[in-house]
Amino acid sequence: MILFSGSVDATINVWLVSSGERLHILKGHTRGILDLAIDPMSRYTEEDSVYVLSASSTPEIRSWKVSYESAIETTSTLAGESEQSDNPTLEVRAAADTAPITVHDTSVNKLLFSPSSSSQDSFDQDLYTASSDNTAKLLTRPVPESDTDAKTRKPKWEPADTFTHPDWVRCIVHDPASGLLVTGCRDEDVRVWNTSSGECVRTLTGHFDSVEGVCIVDGLCGGPATQEKSGNKTSNVVGKWIVSISLDGTLRRWRLDGSGEEMGSDEVDESHDDNTSNGPRADEVVGGVGKKQAMTATEEEDRELAELMADMEDD
Fold first, then answer.
1. I need a labelling partner for 274 at 20 to 30 A (CA). Which of 13, 104, 145, 212 fits?
2. Is 296 helix (H, G, I), strand (E, B) or coil?
3. 221 or 296, greater pLDDT
4. What is the average pLDDT value for the chain, to the nearest integer?
5. Under a CB-based contact definition with an 8 Å cutoff, are residues 208 and 166 in contact?
6. What digits encode the pLDDT tens for the residues 203-260?
7. Is the Cβ–Cβ distance between 68 and 23 less than 8 Å?
8. Residues 230-249, buried b or exposed e (16+ Cβ, 10 A)?
């Protein structure tokens, strides 16, 4: 097993996990590495190597082909299948001249591979990006249109949708089952998007500094469940939650009930207790799930935060 790590010195290190030995140092970026993502389609190739995408404080997304023995920057990426393919789940083609991928105007903060909402097939993976140019983008994988095109065409990752924000997009997560995309922004808000329509269906407020991370989880440590009735049968359905982390020093969570077309009211239903209220609501989670605490920063922490924000502004 190998481990990838990106550094502010603009290099990517490849490590052998079992021994801690450094196998490779990848150089090509000119500014600090902000994120790395292994292309999940690497598992379908016959080669003993993986394709890795890297993002930095520049608009360029670079591609690397890495094995235990070698590591090179490559101008190819793993392409999807021709519509004429007889075996679309196994055949993988390398599409030339697709890297660096340049679809943003400035720093790319996050890379995310996620199954297409329409198919949920682990083979059919889209690429989501989040940038300091105030946008998140959905990129579709290159797909040759025919066997002839596969040899002559040079398909590229192409933006299929753009999600525009009022400030830098710092983080992103996608839920294929519901078709929802969740983004965290420097303007302190978390936004929920319908990937089918490209519309923002909910803005979640509660943080008071840049939102640096988001995730979607099914329930929280065996926590609250919503009741779903079907005829005379009642079953417990553990709801999905959005969890966000911010430079304000807190974690927060919101309920994410329903299919995404209707997520419920922003108001908490006072006729239910906290375990059955449905509708997006923010709970501060600091020092334990659902436990509300106040946090005060020390002078040293305030100084470190100010220096970090200044470095981000420089980027």
1. 212
2. coil
3. 221
4. 75
5. no
6. 999 999 999 999 998 865 544 444 444 343 322 234 788 999 999 999 999 887 533 3
7. yes
8. eeeeeeeeebbbbbbbbbbe
Torsion of CA 307, 248, 285, 252, to 10 degrees: -120
Q: Where do the structural domains in the chain lie, given as residue ranges?
A: 2-216+245-314
Count of C-beta atoms within a 10 Å radius of residue 33: 22
Cis peptide before 176 (omega within 30 of 0): no
- Other CB atoms within a 10 A radius of the CB of residue 307 amount to 10
d(CA 100, CA 29): 10
Q: Is the dihedral of CA 75, 77, 82, 88 positive or negative?
A: positive
Q: In this model, does residue 303 exceed pLDDT 90? A: no
CB 195 within 8 A of CB 136: no
Q: HSE (CB half, 13 Å, CA atoms) of 6?
A: 22
Distance CA 87, CA 91 (A): 6
pLDDT at 32 over 80: yes
Question: Looking at residue 224, what is its pLDDT?
Answer: 46
CATH of the structural domain 2-216+245-314, one choice from 1.10.260.40, 1.10.10.10, 2.40.128.630, 2.40.50.100: 2.40.128.630
- Sort 12 into a burial class: Cβ within 10 Å, 0-12 / 13-18 / 19+: buried
Rg (CA), the chain: 21
The kind and range of the H/E element at 216 are strand 211-218
**pLDDT score of 190:** 96
Residue 218 to residue 222: CA distance in whole angstroms:
9
| Backbone torsions φ then ψ of 297, nearest 5 degrees | -90, 145
Q: Which residues pair with 65 in a beta bridge?
A: 51, 72
Residues in the chain: 315
